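Researcher: Good morning. I'm working through a list of sequences from a screen, and I'd like to move beyond sequence-only analysis. For each chain I'm collecting a predicted structure so we can compare shapes side by side. This is the next one on the list. No need for commentary yet; just the structure.
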Amino acid sequence: MGRAVEFYFQQELADNTKKAYASAQKKYLSFCTDKHLHPLPVKEHILCRFAARLAEEGLANSSIKCYLAGVRQLHLAGGWKDPEICQMARLVQVLRGIKAVQAKRGDSISRLRLPITTDHLRHSTCKQFTLNSIIIK
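Model: Good morning. Structure tokens for this chain:
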């Protein structure tokens, strides 16, 4: 890529996104090195193995998807055509399987959350309001 193209390519992402992607890319490249796999251009069977490894390490399904977005960015930065990860049927099935297993174990982020009660509010460390200022209907 030319300097101007590279500059504008990098400006698309927020700084925190760049940091998250860099972490994901480092983990992916390390995974590929450990398994003696060619990381680029990305291949569906490698992404499936990578996603499974991340799940085994305890990452949530949503975090795994963020890691895959970082890998996609690495692929694009290398000048390859968009791998269209969302269209990779086997990878999509693996991700659904990870989500199902995590939901069964109860480590899904979308699990039932109990409401905040007045007891919670009384014990809250927040001093910016008093319980008397809340109108309970």
